[in-house]
Amino acid sequence: MEPKPTPEPIKPTVDPTPAPVVEPKPTPEPIKPTVDPTPAPVVEPKPEPEVELESTSEENCAIGNAMQQGQVKDMHSGRGIKDVSVTVNGCSTKTDAGGFYILDNIAEDERAALIIKANKAYLQSTVVAIKEYAGDDTLSPNFTEYKISKYTSRWSYFSQKGISNAIGNISKDTIYTDKQGIEYNGLVYGGWTFKSTMNDSGRDAFIGLYEGRNTDGNIVPFVSYGFFSLELKKVNNQLLNVSGSITLKLKNIRETTKETIALWYYDYKQGIRIEEGSAKRNNDGSYIATITHAGTWSLNKALEKPPGIYKGRIVDVDGMPMADVRLEAVGKNWISKDLTTDENGNFEIKVIPDSNFKLKAYNYKDKYAAEYRQEIKGIPSGIISEN
Question: What percentage of the chain carries pLDDT values higher than 70?
């Protein structure tokens, strides 16, 4: 029986307009870090404007006849966010007062990384399919709604002194460089967040897809136990790189007692996670993660056997096939996607074997989502299930 999605209104999200850069006066004392889950208010030297993305140069924009549009919203308030930078394949724009954006004349891409930068939020990203559609009256189905999360802790410290707090340790011997490779000594501004993927909000906020390139160079699906984002910036708001390593303590890893969990960082330009290093379990149940650079990382367990396959077809209330519908299979700590149905409404999703899931659909054209309430029983490894 063909599922007929019931429209559910999508709660629309805001961020304050970034303030201009103001060079700080005499170097202030470092701000004591605040720590999840209830960080104390932090007094920052000056409001921080947006950071320019390295990948947004117009020279690198892939030109074509397609269009990407959408809305960026605040995860908590549901309101659109103004002046958010949105980039696809080097083509950039900013959201309007309602959080809406349009990228015209861009190239088609079956798998493009959508990069979103909002003030005081960690760098966000998802993967979208971009198609070409003819006719001025044809609404592009390349519509993406994205909910922004901000950093939960913000602090500052002197690079020469390093920092040690409940989040982790950065040695005083660490060398900082800006994007030009010039060494930096001075006040470092840090931003931090950690989200468990064992709940809806963390699972939905996960950056990118639940798959990545392992140490063997293969693209594999995985389940995730959580992700974190660490940002380090200098006084002019430019991102910093570090030499050596950064040690972090992760307290909210649930549903596993594994002694070691693989770490995967997110490559924003490629729109993919890459395995690098691991986190080790402490006696108190926390995990110690050692990373080589700031950015967004996750703790994942890669699938070691073939996935199950779930196939189906989406039709409207009149029984007509619905093309260009995005499908998601949502499991306990994973989400698998088919970025778009074909012209006959068909879709195919790889799922984690023997793991129950729910099916969600999003109609690009009419901008509504539907969830099929009945949970679908897990599919064995290598088996194709059709509905």
Answer: 81
CATH no. for 308-386? 2.60.40.1120
Any idea which architecture 153-302 has in CATH?
Answer: Sandwich (2.60)
What is the pTM assigned to this prediction? 0.77
Pick 66-148's CATH classification: 2.130.10.10, 2.60.40.1120, 1.10.820.10, 3.40.1010.10: 2.60.40.1120
What are the pLDDT digits (tens) for 32-82?
444 344 343 333 434 343 333 333 344 589 898 888 888 999 988 889 999
**pLDDT score, position 133:** 63
Q: Which pLDDT score, from 0 to 100, does residue 325 have?
A: 86
Joined tokens for residue 251: 């307290």
- Residue 198, classed as helix, strand or coil, is coil
Q: Looking up tokens 């493009």, which residue turns up?
A: 112
Q: Nearest CA to 42 among 169, 178, 192, 162?
A: 192
pLDDT of residue 134: 54
pLDDT at 54: 36
Q: How many CA atoms lie within 13 A of 343 on its CB side?
A: 1
Alpha carbon 330 to its chain's center: 16
| DSSP symbols for 324-383 | SEEEEEE-SS-EEEES---TT-EEEEEE-TT--EEEEEEETTTTEEEEEEEEEPPPPTT-
249: nearest Cα among 191, 167, 194 = 167
CB 340 within 8 A of CB 326: yes
CA dist 123 and 239 (Å) reads 11
Report yes or no: 370 and 349 within 8 Å, Cβ to Cβ. no
Q: What is the largest CA-CA distance in the chain?
A: 69
Q: What is the mean pLDDT of the chain?
A: 82
CB distance 34 to 154 below 8 Å: yes
Beta-strand relationship, 295-302 and 260-267: antiparallel
